[in-house]
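Lab notes, practical 5.
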Amino acid sequence: MNALGALLILAFSAAAWTCPACGTEQTVDICSACGLPQPPSGMVFVPASSVVIQGDTVEVGAFFIDSSPVVYRDVLPWLGQNCRDGQVLASVITGQYSESGHFLAFTPFVATAASEYSVPAVCLDRPAAAFTWTGAQWYLSSRGTRLPTLAEIHAAAEHGIIQPFNAFNEMQLYANLMETSLGDILGALGRQAMFAGYSTQDERVMWELTHTPLGGNPSIAMPEADDPCVMLFKPLPVPLVTGTGRDMGYFNVIFRGAIDLPGFE
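Output from the prediction step:
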């Protein structure tokens, strides 16, 4: 499915809306004044702009992006439908498969029955973490979206869309789960290990997955079979970037979807 096709599926088809690009009132799916498709539900428009990434100026085309990260409530039904095998599940949420399912102890996910997954109720409406790059991209593609490039997520942050999300509650919850399930391995150090290095507010902010390979062009989405490492983004007064393996799922990394707008100026 191409980006325009996804827009037509996701957008409201008949409701009146105000075009975020030119400000005109519309009653059709594509703005009659400037040609912008109606933003899909839950997504916002980011105009073409220039961003500075690690000292270099990068041009970013217009795009849509989720106004909020994907939450656990959204992904649980999808996991049940698509991850009926333990190895598949491991590639989606941890990348560290074991026949016993012990790898789940390092995540907030619990397998309640065959192909049925849950998280603690307090997590349901919190940003979904512990997803690998592969898992996030697979889930988003099922919605007709993709991970944003590093340049796109920088632009969204500059427009005030990407806000710092404090990970403290998640860290505390996951630490408790790990201490309970892995007490015989980690003992009392389990909780301390989860909090190590996260003493300040800035350090507790979640990282976000991008579609940009480590060291790659920040404005180009990465082909599926390319570099095994990707860039992560942390929205702070001075944005931070780092890299991680595509098959690694971390409790402090979250994600959201984007749609490019080819040909729109």
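Observations recorded by the TA: The chain has eight helices and 13 strands. The two ends are 22 Å apart (CA to CA).
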